[in-house]
DNA sequence: AAGTATTTCAACCGCAAACCA
DNA sequence: TTGGTTTGCGGTTGAAATACT
């Protein structure tokens, strides 16, 4: 017997989200958090599947999302990390506060990959074969690292596509970066007092917001900025990526 | 101005990992 | 240990926007 679909295909809305749906989702998550995505749409009164709600929140509605174009520094960071990590977009996103894996994936496919291919053609093969790099799976990359460990060598890997000495990282740094636990911190704006809330609170809020269409999330935004600042300032290794956009 | 081609990016899909009873 | 459920990830799609003819 096959696995149950993630959501009911019938009676579930698809496609672009409306501002009203966004508001309902934001309000609900700020009251109750998102401990159960599957149950969330039902409780919030949204005709969406949990997966869709999660994606919308993570990629668009989260208060710490940074909107606007990528800076040259951010683009260079993506290029550098992609050489090390491959298509591990969520891992790359973890290094770029306010940017989502989906956004980074899009920017890579629409801009950066093309630009790198162009640069490569212009340099007549002097630079690294970036196409080969793109085809390399992260398993390939990790196997290289394991081999390096076995010989107790501390090779350095050049992760930049130019000869900038500042971009050289030791094996220790690389392996720390690809350690799964390193990436596993979860960003959450769950309301810790959510269990104290009641559905009456929620319904009341919905009612109020149907009249007043505004939302102030500055407190949450600031909290997340502090969170990210803490993460960055406490990680010695991240100094290697000091070109990441500052706040 | 109209039609066509190309680009962008939000959203969906399927799979695998993580979780839990 | 097992099997069902939920979450998270990366690949892909397709509608809308933009560029080009």
Structure keywords:
247 residues; mainly alpha; two-stranded antiparallel sheet; elongated; disordered N terminus; disordered C terminus; DNA-binding; repeat; nucleus
Low-confidence stretches: 1-6, 125-196, 210-247
- Using the CA coordinates, give the radius of gyration: 21 Å
Number of strands: 2
Structural class: mainly alpha
Order of helices and strands: HHHHHHHHEEHHHH
**What's the multimeric state?**
single chain
Distance between the termini: 51 Å
Count helical runs.
12
The percent range for strand residues is under 5%
Major β-sheet annotation: 2 strands, antiparallel
Mean pLDDT: 63
- Tally of separate domains: 2
Structural write-up:
With 247 residues, the chain is an all-alpha fold. The protein has two domains: 19-64 and 191-215, no CATH class; 72-186, no CATH class. 54% of the residues lie in helices and 2% in strands. It is built from twelve helices and two strands, in the order H-H-H-H-H-H-H-H-E-E-H-H-H-H. The chain has a two-stranded antiparallel sheet. Helix 1 (19-32) runs antiparallel to helix 11 (199-211). It is elongated, with a radius of gyration of 21 Å. Residues 1-6, 125-196 and 210-247 have low confidence and may be disordered. It binds a DNA duplex (21 and 21 nucleotides) through residues 3-4, 6, 14-17, 36-38, 50-52, 54-56, 58-60, 87-90, 101-103, 105-107, 109-111.
């Amino acid at each position: 017997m096959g696995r149950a679909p993630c959501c009911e295909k019938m009676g579930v809305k698809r496609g672009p989200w409306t501002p009203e749906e966004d508001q309902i989702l934001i309000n609900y998550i700020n009251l109750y958090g998102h401990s159960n995505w599957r149950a969330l749409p039902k409780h919030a009164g949204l005709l969406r599947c949990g997966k869709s709600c999660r994606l919308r929140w993570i990629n668009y509605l989260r208060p710490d999302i940074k909107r606007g174009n990528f800076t040259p520094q951010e683009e260079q960071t993506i290029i550098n990390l992609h050489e090390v990590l491959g298509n591990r977009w969520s891992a790359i996103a973890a290094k770029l506060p306010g940017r989502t894996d989906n956004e980074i994936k899009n920017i890579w496919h629409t801009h950066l990959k093309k630009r790198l291919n162009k640069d490569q053609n212009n340099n007549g093969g002097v630079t690294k074969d970036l196409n080969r790099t793109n085809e390399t799976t992260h398993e390939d990359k990790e196997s290289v690292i394991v081999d390096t460990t076995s010989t107790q060598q501390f090779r350095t890997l050049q992760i930049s596509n130019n000869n900038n000495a500042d971009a050289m990282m030791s094996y220790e740094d690389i392996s720390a970066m690809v350690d799964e636990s390193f990436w596993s911190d979860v960003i959450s704006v769950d309301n810790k007092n959510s269990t104290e809330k009641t559905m009456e609170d929620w319904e009341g809020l919905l009612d109020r917001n149907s009249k007043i269409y505004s939302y102030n999330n500055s407190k949450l935004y600031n909290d997340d900025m502090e969170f990210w600042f803490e993460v960055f300032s406490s990680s010695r290794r991240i100094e290697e990526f000091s070109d990441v956009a500052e706040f």
